[in-house]
Amino acid sequence: MQDRSFISELAEQVLKASEGKQEKITVVFPNRRAGLFFRKELSKLIQSPIYMPSVTSMEDFVMQFSPYRKIETLPAVFQLYEVYKSHQKKEETFDTFFFWGEMILRDFEEIDQYLVNTKQLFTSIKTQKELDEEFYFLDEEDRAIIQTFWSSFLPQATRTQEAFLETWKILLPIYEAYQELLRKRGEAYGGMIYRGVAEQLSTEEFSIDCVIYFAGFNALTFAEEKIIKHFVQEYNAQVFWDLDAYYFS
């Protein structure tokens, strides 16, 4: 006999816990694909017509609390290019920029998903004093790693290293100007939306009239963790983890 899947067990739990009020339940999965399998498993347990619970992905769930619409990758890179041109001295066509633009956009996504302090991240470190002032909150081992990285650029950096430094210096103003441009357009990339929602949790009160289940998560970004914790603490949401009991404990 095969072990029952996480999705099938979850479907049974949700059906039992709803007490005939499935329409008052929202199940949030890491992605839309998991929601499709959940609906399929739930349908196997239903003997008569009922209201289905709301099933959504984490991204769609978070976006409903953001004032911005998500921008697609191509227009996102193009808008980034417009900002990049105003900060970069040398001329560069969109065709040659596109590859790097996608990389920068992925970095911005990760920076926001993990709620990174960009002013500290994009700091150029040249002396021990600067290191101590910028990263006072780190322990000695972490500061040593950062110092080792920046010391490779001094006292005489190679041409490649100098090019890296020149790009590194403009990343913070590009990041800030890019986000400002997108806000004016009413748009945002995914990580920007997550960060915005995560940072407004303490000041916003959401109108929630359903029971929320976060299901199937096994690894969270800092933004996701902060959002889920907030809904658990403030709105009695429940979390169903898709991981081995050994690691959970």
Short description:
This protein has 249 residues and is an alpha/beta fold.
Explain what this protein looks like in three dimensions.
By secondary structure, this protein is α/β, with parallel strands linked by helices. It is 58% helix and 10% strand. It is built from twelve helices and six strands. The chain has helices spanning 6-18, 32-45, 58-63, 73-85, 94-113, 118-121, 128-134, 140-151, 159-184, 190-200, 222-235, 245-248, and strands at residues 25-29, 54-57, 69-70, 187-188, 211-217, 238-241. Strand 5, helix 11 (222-235) and strand 6 (238-241) form a beta-alpha-beta unit. The longest helix has 26 residues, at 159-184.
Keywords:
249 residues; alpha/beta; four-stranded parallel beta sheet; two-stranded parallel sheet; 6 strands; 58% helix; elongated
Shape descriptor reads elongated
Through-space gap between termini: 27 Å
Instruction: Classify the helix fraction into a percent range.
Output: 55-70%
Side-by-side strand order of the widest sheet: 2-1-5-6
The overall average pLDDT, rounded, is 85
